[in-house]
Amino acid sequence: MQTGAANIYMRTGIDEVLKANPELQLVSDQPADYMSEKARQITETVLQQHPDLCGIMGIWDNAEVGAGAAVAAAGKQDQVTIVTNGAGAATGCDSIKNGLLDVIFNFNAPIQGEIAAQQISELLQHPDRQAGSEKTIFFGPITRVDKTNATGRNCWKPEDIK
Questions:
Q1: pLDDT by residue (tens digit) across 82-139?
Q2: Is the backbone of residue 108 left (phi > 0), alpha (psi -120 to 50) or beta?
């Protein structure tokens, strides 16, 4: 059972894609608990049960690397498309470049941090504001990252954030 807000939102998105595309058939729904080795094992089994599998949708790029390894080991990289979500780290881009993942919907963690820092700065500059007197929502961009744009700010490294 999904309990984390991020998981619930991402799973809702997957469900909406499946509902809007009835030609897609869900053949397996198993949590890998954010562990790439578990994702690899699950994917190996699913590929044996469904040799015509055409796609994998996941919710975290690091875990889906294991699924990509299983797809590569089965020689099905041209058949199975792997789509996932991630923070935009260089490791995800490396996985795309190495053929383990096809698409990452990147929420770009550094930009999320910048947005939070801007809000904190705004609050500190106006200590006279009453708590709850303003309602503010920030939206960070989501970028579709694939082989054509797995570079630059889409692929940050920890040392880039200082």
A1: 999 999 999 999 999 999 999 999 998 888 888 999 989 988 998 898 888 888 888 8
A2: left
- Beta strands 103-106 and 81-86 are parallel
User: 0.85 cut: is pTM over it?
Assistant: yes
50 domain-assigned = yes
Asked if residue 91 and residue 132 are part of one domain, the reply reads no
61-73 vs 90-97: helix axis angle to the nearest 10?
A: 20
> Both 126 and 149 in a single domain?
no
Residue carrying the six token digits 């053949």: 27
Shared-domain flag, residues 62 and 132: no
Q: Is residue 76 in a domain?
A: yes
Residue type, 75: G
Burial zone of 5 (CB within 10 Å; 0-12 exposed, 13-18 middle, 19+ buried): exposed
For residues 95 and 131, membership in a common domain is answered with no
Angle at 83 between CA 79 and CA 88, to 5 degrees: 135
Rounded CA gap, 61 and 54, in Å? 18
Cβ–Cβ under 8 Å, residues 36 and 91 = no
